[in-house]
Amino acid sequence: MDLQHRDREWWRDGVIYQIYPRSFADSNGDGIGDLAGITARLDHLNDGTPASLGIDAVWLSPFYPSPMADFGYDVADYTDVHPIFGTLADFDRLLTAAHSRGIRVIIDLVPNHTSDRHPWFVESRFSRDSPKRDWYVWADSKPDGGPPNNWMSAFPPAGRAWTFDQGTGQWYLHSFLPEQPDLNWWNPEVRRAMDEVMRFWLDRGVDGFRIDVAHRMAKDPELRDNPLVELGGDDDAAGEARAIRLARLGLDQLYDEDWPEVHQILRRFRHTLDAYQQRMAVGEVYLLDLRKLARYYGSGRDELHLAHNFVFLHQPWKPEAFRSVVDEYESLLPADAWPAYFLGNHDHPRVPSRYDEAGNGMARARVAAMMVLTLRCTPFLYYGEEIGMSDGGVPSERVVDVDGRDPERTPMQWDSSPGAGFTTGEPWLPVAPGAQRVNVAAERDDPASMLSLYRRLIWYRRGSVALRRGSYRSLPDGPTGLYAYLREAPGVERLLVALNFSGDPVEWPSRSDLPPDGHLELSTDPSRRPGPVSLAGLAIGPEEGVVVRLT
Ligand code: NOJ
Ligand code: CA
Fold it and tell me: Does any ligand 1 atom lie closer than 6 A to the CB of residue 70?
């Protein structure tokens, strides 16, 4: 497939699949996934036929040289590959192999911070007069000898966001680990350096970037204290999730994230991307406030192409919860902006585990798959989601992550062999217990499997203008337990999606605003066959989702 001739805005209707390189496929038996391993597994992702998953792009989490204090989100060299993952030549081979299958490749850009071993920081730390001193955020102690302000690291075990440097007698800021010092984005040299990093990869042919903590690059230049939290008064859809997060931190993050200047930085990124053809940026905008999130699209296509919506990810398993987030977000987004929904990534428990209540996690995960793949959005999937991977049990002696995220990073389950087909060696994290049953080989030819459901949904979506580009309208007045919506491409196609979040069967009511008949296109229930249906009285089983074409 010739990428140049496909629609310029591929990122609007493509399905994007996140690969955590350490955990996807190990080509050399050292127990750690690598780039050559990914290349060897591309056919699973898209071989051009419905026998494969059918995704349009992959997002690769960091594979750069790194001391791995945060498994690659502590970058020591932005323009190379960590030897454990391979070489730049391996990266080029992966890119070429992906492109030849019509798979785009976006990579993780980590602009908020570097590793403390990055030569920039080593130089910055060396002396107060270092030419790179101002590339990072250095500040004096408060008069009482304490840190410059009350900002906290996003990782609770790391405590304060400041570490004192004995050698130079000042503190440096780290929004995450002490091994991840924050760059000073007020410094124009930092901005120019990151432009160069972006161009390095764009020139190599990458199709875009996922921008790590895109909302945190700019902070208050006066480094003022964050105010203590005042809870209450939140009644919008995001209120509860935001309140939980604030309660954990105890501080309202007024000054250390979402600082207005961040939009200027994103406009600069966009300018760099726009000098190339068909490139994009999706931001990890971890703001649990839909109004703020919507601003990251800019005005007139001048900031992010997509912003990950974490409010959606944080919803409880309730139809009205998802509906109100989606409806509110639809009303807030600028006309041309496009949502990006997902329910899992390398920082959050997996859906079948997170939503499980007395063993129904897998049934709910099937409904969740239908939701993410039929909403008006660019869906992001996380590796293993397509086979129904649950969180792995990681015994305390095998814990390696600072923030409890190992369970969602266990090896991809390719087959039922001891290394799950991920490795012939000892995997860096234990293979999850369910791997004997839950794996690509076991699910490939089973029409009832999660993999078959994902394939059906993705390939159906590829062929459906209404799902890829159509409008969205929720039907809030339906039966309890349902989240139902219409996806419409006027004059072409009208689809009703009805998702039963409850454990009870539901009957679709007769409605004067919808035609009486339709055609059942898809169901999460593998025993249900497609075919003509009468809409009034249509039975929707417990934890079943259906897509009906309205005729
Ligand atoms: C967000 C990433 O997704 C997470 O894995 C990482 O720890 C932090 N940003 C810091 O880079
Ligand atoms: Ca390896």
Answer: yes
